[in-house]
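Hi support team,

I've been running sequence recovery on a batch of backbones for a student project. Most finish fine, but this one hangs at about 90% for roughly twenty minutes before it completes. I'm not sure whether the input is malformed or the queue is just slow. I've pasted the structure tokens below so you can try to reproduce it. Let me know if you need the job ID as well.

Thanks,
M.K.
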């Protein structure tokens, strides 16, 4: 989903991981009692079943990408097969690694621009609705997106 907004959005909740990417402007994201000011160069990972709202400061453009939890856990396993005994163990550690319901990533400069280009390509492929022909192209773009975000993710300290 991509769109410009001028008024508060929410409350929203999804049963998957939501990635919010600010493309232009700034918004205040509210998760529980916490307020997160986010702007261009920020991406936010929001945990499944987390209620959140956001309100633009002026006009803002965001892209929201929804990704299945099991898919992301599999990707985390395959990224670190030397750390996890099997892919089912990853679920036990994910909550400890990322205890906050909203994880704000600071993705500035070249990575922020790359992120927007990848999201634009994903949106175009999705809107064409050429299934199953576009499936692997979407899969490749999702891998590019995760590869761009991964260096900016910081796990909670022990």
């Amino acid at each position: 989903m991509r769109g410009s907004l001028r008024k508060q959005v929410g409350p929203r909740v999804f049963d998957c991981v939501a990635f919010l990417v600010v493309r232009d402007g700034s918004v205040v994201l509210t998760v529980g009692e916490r307020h997160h000011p986010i702007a261009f160069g920020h991406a936010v990972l929001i945990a499944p079943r987390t209620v959140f709202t956001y309100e633009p400061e002026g006009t803002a453009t965001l892209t929201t990408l929804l990704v299945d939890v099991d898919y992301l856990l599999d990707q985390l396993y395959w990224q670190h097969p030397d750390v996890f005994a099997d892919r089912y163990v990853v679920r036990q550690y994910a909550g400890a690694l990322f205890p906050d319901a909203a994880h704000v990533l600071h993705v500035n400069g070249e990575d922020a621009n790359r992120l927007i280009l990848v999201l634009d390509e994903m949106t175009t492929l999705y809107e064409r609705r050429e299934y199953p022909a576009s499936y692997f192209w979407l899969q490749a773009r999702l891998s590019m997106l995760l590869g761009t975000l991964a260096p900016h993710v910081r796990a909670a300290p022990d």
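--
Follow-up from support: It reproduced on our side and the slowdown came from queue contention, not your input. Helices lie at 69-79, 90-97, 110-128, 135-149. No action needed from you.
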